[in-house]
Design goal:
mainly alpha, about 85% helix, elongated, transmembrane helix, SPW repeat-containing protein, transmembrane, membrane
Amino acid sequence: MSTKSRWFLGAACAAMFLALAPTLTGIAVGKNITDFALGFGVALMFGALVTWKNHRIG
């Protein structure tokens, strides 16, 4: 796995944690913020898959 893929996965984990932390702790945060963080995490996971695939093939 390339370094870029690891950075993408680390950032995706952080975004997912930020999206789910208000739910787990009971803190009231706007739904738009959690939706954005969740979508951003998914996009970063997709980026990790793409860079990992390019590293593995090339």
